[in-house]
Amino acid sequence: MKEPMSVEEVLKKLQEALGEALLSHEVREYTMGVKRKRTYRELWITIKPDAFRKTVEAIFALDYPHLHFIAGEDGGGETITMIYSFGVFHTHPWGELSITVKFDLPKENLVLPTITDLMIGAETNEREIREMLGVEFEGLKNKRHLFLPDDWPEGKYPWRRDEHGVEDMVKHTHRSVNEIRKMRGEE
Amino acid sequence: MAKTQYYVPVGPIHPALKEPIRVEARVEGEKIVEVDVKRGFAHRGIEYMGMKRNAIQTLYLSERICGICSISHPYAFVVTAEKALGIEAPPRAQYIRTIIGELERIHSHILWLGVVAHEMGFDSLLFWTWKGRERLLDILELLTGNRINYSVFMIGGVRRDIKESHVKAIKDMISYYRIFNEEMKEVFLSDPVYKARTRGVAQLSKKMALELNAVGPVARAAGVRMDIRQDIPYDAYADIDVRAVVPQDIVGEARGDAYDITMVRLYEIDQSLDIIEYCLDEMPEGKLMAIPNYVALLAKIRRTQGEAIGAHEAPRGEVIHYIKFDGKRDGPSVWKVIAPSYNNINTWAPLLLGAEVADIPIVVAYIDPCMCCNDRIAVVRDEDGRVIDPATLHRKAVEKTRKLREELGVRT
């Protein structure tokens, strides 16, 4: 594992790598501890969606990261906000730096490059986002459902707050045995 | 002659795997040549439910995510919510939270040791370890009133104090576990049969652990020195220099197998006892909650626009929460939960590939899998088979806790 860098150094490296594609950044500070108060800092950046892969590669160049999570938020509008959170320089006391990458993905083109070629462990996260929000990951090999049943209807995404949401989820998740038999043509 | 391949399904209901998950293995003779892991048999959509409730209700909903470590998710939830709201818990509350978090770690590790012994066929070891674990559950019940789902954490503090009268009982428990843990180390680490069944089984290299995004004791056993309590300290952990327990510090090398993971867990019990002892001795005086009035707390949440990521090092690995408050509702508008098994289950497929059928239970058990999405519902019946209503159940629970207090000689 590499030696920790300060938030400013990391930010400088990301700015060099991304240039104009880094839209905004924020360094958040939190005080931790009771008797020995210390400041813990996090980096939050907003980027252009087409620079996503470049950003991830820049983070991987800093240190082999730990993927905290991939989350997404659908506010019901035209875009889905994607949130990727990485931790770098973990294994050092007080050293882990959390880098959170946010970007808006337009709903007409919900496609992202996969990061499973860099980190195999990201597969579960991508499969979950794919079935819950309908984001397609280019290059993701295993595209089976992770949590949802295999017979889940196409075009229904539980975390979407638009017409693709699950207003009629109960109807879909609780099919009766007779309905399933009918679907299979057994009756 | 071509070898015949057989298909061995393990789970979702199987003696070797008591969780709703399915491992499908294709075997040639005794060797596994293809593995597929299927999840989601009882996905409850807890995050979705949380986004419909207020933050205090969501906190207690998060406690129900995991059936064993019921403090891990609330811990991560309160840390995250406090970061998003800009609240700091009072010092005494921070120490109490750490004590309860560590008590949880000890009982979870002992539970795992019993489970892994059971998977290998040592059922007497299972009963012995679980009997030893009872003392800790009694202490948790003494402190919180419950053996599980303690409902003791709150955004900006805790709801119950650790009083002077409790301290003696906890210290007695610590001295009991110091001896018990030495006995466990002797039994697990020196036993030739246990060694033979675990050395080289489920061997995970450091590189694999990083690439598969493994967390907690699984990653530490592979030699990755990661621990949230060390990397991003919070609460009382920031006062104590917690260091990740890795096999290379104990025996000089990390092999990342089932034996190493047992060792890491056993030594972490010692570490937890030290942390509890420190917290009891150094616990500051003061109030328990930053905002004691729930109505005022919810009103603050309704006014807050903000988001945060928080983490807690649960017994099985890191639990990470992401919460966003949109300033319109008194609950989270986005809530994302990552439990340790979510990442650690990734290690099953590569480890099982090329292993033998007899190793399936050990590989499956070694990460301490918790599906965290088990749809849990409990119906309690009395001797006559009638369903007991919640009010009666609550009364019975209170009576039992009182009896326990009398037995341990603790006044409230």
From TrEMBL, chain A:
| Residue ranges of every copy of the NADH:ubiquinone oxidoreductase 30kDa subunit domain listed in the record | 45-164
The record's listing under InterPro entries reads: ComplexI_49kDa-like, NADH_quin_OxRdtase_su_C/D-like, NADH_UbQ_OxRdtase_30kDa_su
Question: What Gene3D superfamilies does its record include?
Answer: NADH:ubiquinone oxidoreductase, 30kDa subunit
Q: Report a single Gene Ontology molecular function.
A: NADH dehydrogenase (ubiquinone) activity
In Swiss-Prot or TrEMBL terms, this protein is called: Hydrogenase
* Record lineage: Archaea, Methanobacteriati, Methanobacteriota, Thermococci, Thermococcales
UniProtKB/TrEMBL annotation, chain B:
Question: Quick check: keyword Lipoprotein in the entry?
Answer: no
Q: So where does Mg(2+) get bound?
A: 47, 337
Which Pfam families does this chain map to? Answer: Complex1_49kDa, NiFeSe_Hases
| Oxidoreductase is among the record's keywords | yes
Molecular-function GO term, any one: NAD binding
Q: Which residues bind Fe cation?
A: 69, 373
> Which Gene3D superfamilies does this chain map to?
Cytochrome-c3 Hydrogenase, chain B
Q: Which prosthetic group or cofactor does it need?
A: Fe cation; Ni(2+)
Q: Which residue range or ranges hold the NADH-quinone oxidoreductase subunit D domain?
A: 120-376
- Binding annotation for Ni(2+): 66, 69, 370
Q: Which UniProt keywords apply?
A: Iron, Magnesium, Metal-binding, Nickel, Oxidoreductase
Q: What is this protein called?
A: Membrane-bound hydrogenase subunit alpha
The record lists the organism as Thermococcus thioreducens
